[in-house]
Amino acid sequence: MAAPAIDHAMSTASQTQTITIAKGINQGLRAAMEADPKVIVMGEDVGKLGGVFRVTDGLQKDFGEQRVLDTPLAESGIIGTAVGLAIRGYRPVCEIQFDGFIFPGFDQIVSQVAKLHYRTQGRIKMPIVIRVPFGGGIGAVEHHSESPESLFAHTAGLKVVSCSNPVDAYWMIQQAIQCDDPVLFFEPKGRYHEKAQLDPTQTPYPLFRSRVVRTGSKATLVAYGPKVRTCLDAAAAAEEDGLDLEVIDLRTLSPLDLAPVFDSVRRTGRLVVVSEAASESSIASEVAARVQQECFYSLEAPVLRVTGFDSPYPPSKLEEEFLPDLDRVLHAVDRSLAW
Amino acid sequence: MSSPEQWTHPDGAPPATAATPTAEQVIAGLRATTEGGADLVQLLTPEGERVHHPDFDIDITPEELRGLYRDMVLVRRVDREANALQRQGQLGIWVPLLGQEAAQIGAGRAMQPNDMAFPSYREHGVAWCRDVHPTQLLGIFRGTDHGTWDPMEKRFHPYVIVIGNQVLNAAGYAMGQRFDGKVGDADGEATICFFGDGATSQGDVHEGFVWAAVYDAPLVFFCQNNQWAISEPTERQTRLPLYQRAKGYGFPGIRVDGNDVLATLAVTRWALQECRTGNGPVLIEAFTYRMDAHTTSDDPSRYRLSDELELWKLKDPIERVRVHLVKQQWADQEFFDQIQADSDAIAAELREYCVNMPDPGPERIFSNVYAEPSPVLDAQRDEFLDYVSGFAGGEH
């Protein structure tokens, strides 16, 4: 199926290039490092190897070993030393190799990264970006396909974003690095190689804003990261059946920017929230709670969630069943419309 | 060909002791870690006798020693006054430093102005040396704030309560000092990080050792082994004297008499200088004793014998300096009287300040969670403050 393009404003042909999400982040990191000598990249295998997904490819060669650090293999060490470097005036961009490996660093993230600005009443800032390739669909072994974003959105003091396409990847990583707050940056690893046209001269969309990526009138689909493409595909399939669905890319998970969602639901009356994460106490749950609070009289049906299950991520032969796909999204739309 | 016996007990290390010490060991203060034997760096004996050390000797003027004595007496008085304030309900909790004055003043006075310190939560003596006024510690324990000093102005990081976190933060800071080109000559910068014997079991401390070693960070790891991690003795944390762990990471480890302010000053000064000139990191184990409870909420009578405390009282860090000053005729009665007056004054100031500390307003809940705006939190704050202001007189 031909993927409908996301409109990224006007671009001039001469500046436009085709990039992937991985390349978008790579070029965004490069631009940020060129703009500010205090920006450093640190993580396991990010230097010589260029990262296991090659997202940091070529950066150490061009910026040197003191700005692209192949660190010892310990996630608490990566985050904990980034805290000290940030106090010293650096802007560290930490790579956690896979979602399921972030937990050794969880203590430093929750206890120091998230709280130092509050503890010191603003005397210490924590301009740290923690990049996390997340989500499934790559046939990996255990701990390589998880979606832990809700844990961080639940933690005061952190900001959490997720990019869904190459153009956002390019801009959002730069904006996250410029942010004086710590940002968890969730990258849809299963979609690292999806392509789009980037014009680096265009004005970027603000980081902490959600965005309507397809307009429609019958129901609203809300997603982020890897599931935005799933929802766009579902909307394209529904269109063939004469169903006109609106799709919103949350982009920012903390703070949530739900004004566009409220506006949409007031028009469509129906909402389906889609995420790979388990449903209980999740981003999807928060969106559902806030929408019922703000749009109570506009709702024609209960808010439905299409998510991963409340199980650990299964052996990968089962991930097609586990992950929300086009059919499960449309099934939920049907249930909402039939209410 | 080495024997299995040698593999498990490397040359120079004592055999591991049983996890549960005998009554005789406890009474003698001898646990997994012995007094240190020949490896313990000491320059002033518990009896106040000046002794010399081939590697870590120090020239000290009468004035300098009087200054160190004054520091220790005053921080002990601050500590006792704060402890009393807790007992009288003015503080929620207090973390006593009693017995660790020499370790903290010796280390704190070894620092240069540009050096950076990362404390745990018991480092009231180091705070003193960094010119953090003792009144600025009170809010943490009264529940009005999390510490109000400016960490960068004082070169003294906020107190860190999660055990061992600060060791990695210090390693990162020290890496930054090196990246900034501040290491390599006598005018360089260094970092010192404080933690206890219990913290040495934390993964973050191990990772801090690894990071500092592989990045040649100018970092002094200053472990105050006060023998107890709340109720757990040091042998619950280690089979080996803690300073010997450094060898496994590839940097020097030194055990100093942490109740000897001269020895602590000499060793820490040397270690910081090593770091400034590019030879870091260094581990110092300051062998000392927690003479009071872990905190005011703790009851040491449940887990240690009072005989042990009596033994350590004979090694008091302050008394040995007083004896030496008197023996050398470096201090007269007027000096001691003046320090007594200064102690009384600071205790009164602390009390006056503490009982008059205002409670923070409800807006403090929401302030500085983020450096940049967060519309969700801002809305929560506005709603709550509106709710609060709905009560008569704006009060609950």
Describe what you observe in this structure.
The complex is a heterodimer of chains A (339) and B (396). With 339 residues, chain A is an alpha/beta fold. Chain A folds into 2 domains: 17-198, Thiamin diphosphate (ThDP)-binding fold, Pyr/PP domains (Rossmann fold, 3-Layer(aba) Sandwich); 211-337, 3-Layer(aba) Sandwich (Rossmann fold). In chain A, 34% of the residues lie in helices and 20% in strands. Chain A contains 12 helices and 14 strands. Chain A has helices at residues 21-35, 59-63, 75-87, 106-113, 116-119, 149-153, 166-178, 226-240, 259-268, 283-294, 319-322, 326-337, and strands at residues 17-20, 39-43, 68-70, 91-95, 129-134, 159-162, 183-188, 195-198, 211-214, 219-223, 245-249, 252-254, 271-278, 304-308. A 7-stranded mixed β-sheet of chain A has the order 3-2-4-5-7-6-12, with helices on both faces. In chain A, α8 (226-240) crosses α12 (326-337). The longest helix of chain A has 15 residues, at 21-35. The model of chain A has no long low-confidence stretch (mean pLDDT 96). Chain B is α/β, with parallel strands linked by helices and 396 residues long. Chain B folds into 2 domains: 32-355, Rossmann fold, CATH 3.40.50; 362-394, no CATH class. Chain B has helices at 4-8, 23-28, 62-87, 101-110, 124-129, 135-142, 151-154, 165-179, 203-214, 245-249, 261-276, 306-313, 319-327, 333-355, 375-389; strands spanning 40-41, 116-118, 191-196, 219-225, 228-229, 232-233, 253-257, 282-287. In chain B, the strands form 2 sheets. In chain B, strands 1-7-8-4-3-2 form a 6-stranded parallel β-sheet, sandwiched between helices. Chain B has a two-stranded antiparallel ribbon with strand order 5-6. In chain B, α9 links the parallel β3 and β4 (219-225). In chain B, α3 packs parallel to α14 (333-355), α4 packs parallel to α11 and α6 packs across α14. The N and C termini of chain B lie far apart (78 Å). Residues 1-10, 12-19 and 26-34 of chain B have low confidence and may be disordered. Chains A and B meet through α3, α4 and α5 of A and α8, α9 and α15 of B.
